[in-house]
Amino acid sequence: MFLTEIFRMALGSLRTNKLRSALTILGVAIGVFSVIGVMTSLSAIQGSIETGLSFLGSNIFQLAKYPVINNGGDAEDKYRNRKDISLDNANEFVRLMEGQASAIALKCFDGGRPVSYGRVTLQGRTVVGTNEFFLTANSYAIAYGRNISPDDVEFGRPVTVVGASIQKKLFPSETPLGKTINVHSKPYVIIGVMAEKGSSFGNSQDELVLVPITKFFSDFGHENRTINLAIQSTSQATYNNTLDKAIGAMRAARGLKLGQDNDFEIYSNDTLLTAFAQVADTVRIGAFVISAIALLAAGIGIMNIMLVSVTERTREIGVRKAIGARKYDIIKQFLIEAVLLSELGGLAGILIGVVGGNSVALYFDMTMIFPWFWAITGLVVCSVIGIGFGSYPAWKAASLHPIEALRYE
């Protein structure tokens, strides 16, 4: 029998039992989709992080009360019970690090605050108490106006630098410089507007309101507020030395004694990548487990439909064997039918998975990708499933005695 004829017969058999074949293909498609969809979205997110990570600027590390990713449980209680990094701690740290770093940014965040001008109110904006180094530490630039100055911080002036999105919504047809806006009912004069930065992971980076950190604490209070410090070394060559000195300075500022563990976290771009990679690996393992269960169920479905097909086509098998079909031909015929079922499900799963995964990438404004490695791996796995679960039905069909098969009704 020619291979083309076998494929034609296999397709004919699938068309004869459309619903049964469709349900079997759907089972395989779900298993493949669960892996391809997850891998596509994770690859898109990871690629975006690796090529465009801008959470911290160049040669910068950060000290904070909480880690970049909190896994919850007992560890969460441990971090929560730490003392907040207060403004006094931060100022003492800056004093101890004088001359050791090119920039030290202080940052304290307060999310979900209303910002208004005239009759227009923007809800849910993030207010950041900071100093003149926030832009450097977070890769922002001033579009026009000026940045927060050391004098603004020292004297606690009610001035603010706003994100591009806030400027567009509150001042669509006039300059915002010199205008007074209300930030959570507190008046601030706009002195500058940050250059547009776009979105990251679906969240706009242009919705920030920067105010001098001294004025921030004066207006919004000190309770339950902790400061993050971003430290920039003078160069990559001095990075490790600056990091060592910063750890010692923070321990001194926090009053830690020799032998006590650090009560603060240290992270950089590399640790952000590592943290994401750990989360991604956990998600991948979960996707593999779900996919393996789904594909096992799909494989059992393939074996079931092939056994039913063998029973329904017993007389056909007898006729073929009677006119000279070899045992090998029968096995090949049914194996190709099983593999075809599995591969059609695999192709459907890959298509849906790629579309679903890239939908996530589009939602987060990331570059779409096609996971060639996982797609090829999915097709290979589907072939293995088709062969593995189709072997017994194929062997059973090939082992039928032609005379007994011809008598079957």
What's the topology here?
Layout (H helix, E strand, L loop, with lengths): L2 H14 L1 H35 L7 E5 L9 H7 L6 H10 L6 E15 L2 E11 L3 H4 L4 E4 L4 H6 L3 E4 L1 H7 L9 E4 L2 E9 L4 E2 L2 E2 L3 E5 H8 L7 E5 L6 H16 L10 E4 H44 L1 H9 L4 H37 L8 H27 L3 H6 L2
Parallel strand pairs: 3-10, 5-7
Antiparallel strand pairs: 1-11, 1-12, 2-3, 2-6, 2-11, 4-7, 5-10, 6-7, 8-9
Write out key terms for the chains shown:
409 residues; elongated; 2 domains; 17% strand; alpha+beta; six-stranded mixed barrel
Write a structural description.
The protein folds into 2 domains: about 5-50 and about 275-405, no CATH class; about 60-265, no CATH class. It has 14 helices and 12 strands. The protein has helices spanning about 5-15, 20-50, 75-80, 85-95, 135, 150-155, 165-170, 215-220, 240-255, 270-310, 315-320, 325-365, 370-400, 400-405, and strands spanning about 60-65, 105-115, 120-130, 140-145, 160, 180-185, 185-195, 200, 205, 210, 230, 265-270. The strands form 2 sheets. The chain has a 6-stranded mixed β-barrel. Strands 8-9 form a two-stranded antiparallel sheet. Helix 4 (about 85-95) packs across helix 9 (about 240-255) and helix 10 (about 270-310) runs parallel beside helix 13 (about 370-400).
